[in-house]
Amino acid sequence: MNRRMRLAAAVWWCAFGCAPAAWAVDWAVFKPQGYVSDFAGVVDAGGKRQLDAYCAAVEQATGAQIALVTIASLQHEPIEDVTHAIFRAWNLDQKPLDRKPQKNAVMWLVAVENRRDWMEAGPGLATVLTGSEIAAILRQARPALARQQYAQALMAAADEMGTRIAAAQRKTIAVRLPRRARRSLAESIPWLLVAGALLLCFWLFRVLGRPARHIRNAGGFGGGETGGW
Known about the structure:
Layout: H1 2-17, H2 19-23, E1 36-38, H3 45-62, E2 64-71, H4 79-89, E3 104-111, E4 116-121, H5 131-146, H6 150-169, H7 185-188, H8 191-217
Parallel strand pairs: 1-2, 2-3
Antiparallel strand pairs: 3-4
Helix pairs in contact: 3-6, 5-6
């Protein structure tokens, strides 16, 4: 009886306990589609051509390769793990070997359905694209992501990356990306500041209006009222 129970437990473990590992996505099957690998299908053809041309100019000027990747879903995996898996599968993490130069590469991966993104830089760009630099780049790109303007987001990130890499090498990039989409008038107005200014004006109007009434009611006594003192 105990033997049957152990056998049943082993079968159950193979069927269910090992299922997550068996069902895990093999991210190595994703093959690069150029500088822009739009597996999620969210970048228009015109934007992809402009990005490819810009990233090619960056690589020609600096030797650094920019990989821009979109996927539909992370399939319940951490985005940093997915990014690293694709980064390694595409040999972008290549280190010096047999006197060959290391590969200067950076990848920005965007998971559309999960609304997550992650950037990973290879060893050749570790001193240029530091943690603080990457955070600054992502701050420039994420507003466009929030508006689901994926081509504009990729352009913003690519422009920031290319500019920093070229500046570190004192190089000039021959190709320029188009000016980023401007915000609408409603997005450009700082509504919180406007509301705060109106509240301040209302408060000043009430506060400054009080002494005048107190002086009129003081009957000639100097100083007026002292409130709650």
